[in-house]
Amino acid sequence: MHPGRIDLGIGRAPGTDQLTALALRRTMEGLSAEAFPEELTDLMSFFLGNDPDARITATPGRGDMPEIWLLGSSGYSAQLAGLLGLPFSFAHHFSSANTVPALALYRQSFRPSRWLERPHSMVAVTAICADSDERAQWLAGPAGLSFLRLRAGRPEPLASPDEAAAYPYTEAELSFVRDRALGQAIGSPQTVQRELSGLLERTGADELMLTALVYDIEDRIRSYELIAEKAAGGLSKPS
User: Fold this and answer.
1) How confident is the model over 210-235, as a mean pLDDT?
2) Which helix (H) or strand (E) holds 43?
């Protein structure tokens, strides 16, 4: 079903807060990332079928491994991806200060493998596009508030743009939201194209993955349409 259609992205983090992760994994030991390299090797062995002592046969996965990417927001997975010769995707949308150093570490650590002859990287970035910068910033309000609440340990359903605009931010909270938006592509098609071009220039990424935490589905679809029609065509990987 999957050949050529599905990439398998794997990260060390549980992907949620610690309490929810504990409910999913059931034990504190299950939350540890110390065994991540060994667990990754085991997973790849299920696909490859190259462990003669394995007591589990992955069906129908054996012999048909999807393209595996390591995901990260720091240097650990970047270095591991390089050592294993795997493609690497960095979470610029919530760790923008670490993007360039992590990609540099990935490239420095890279060893050619059966999957890649040279480093191959992706950068995940927030991209919210509207007809004007002001409209796009208004649509981005709920995402900023969502990250603020998550950082404070009180996640809630995504607010509407009106609710986000009416939220009584403190100066410290406003500073957090503004800092988080730095390096993201939020604005008119011209602004988004400029921001994405700059990101490609700084990172040398082979691919971009765009994420848009937008409240209304029609606004989200329109954002992607504007990027595809008016911004993406002017992008190219730096030589």
Assistant:
1) 95
2) helix 36-48
Cβ-contact 122, 81 below 8 angstroms: no
Contact 68, 75 (CB under 8 A): no
87 touches 72 (CB < 8 A): no
121 phi and psi, to 5 degrees? Answer: -125, 155
The CA-CA-CA angle for residues 193, 197, 199, to 5°, reads: 120
- Say how many C-beta atoms besides its own lie within 10 A of residue 103's C-beta: 24
Closest CA to 223 of 188, 171, 172, 180: 188
CA distances from 83 to 34, 155, 180, 206 (A): 17, 36, 30, 19
Q: Count CB neighbours of 164 within 10 A.
A: 22
Q: Taking the model in full, what pTM does it have?
A: 0.88
Number of C-beta neighbours around residue 182 at 10 A: 8
Q: What is the pLDDT of residues 4-23, one digit of tens each?
A: 788 999 988 777 777 777 78
Give me the mean pLDDT over the 34-50 stretch: 85
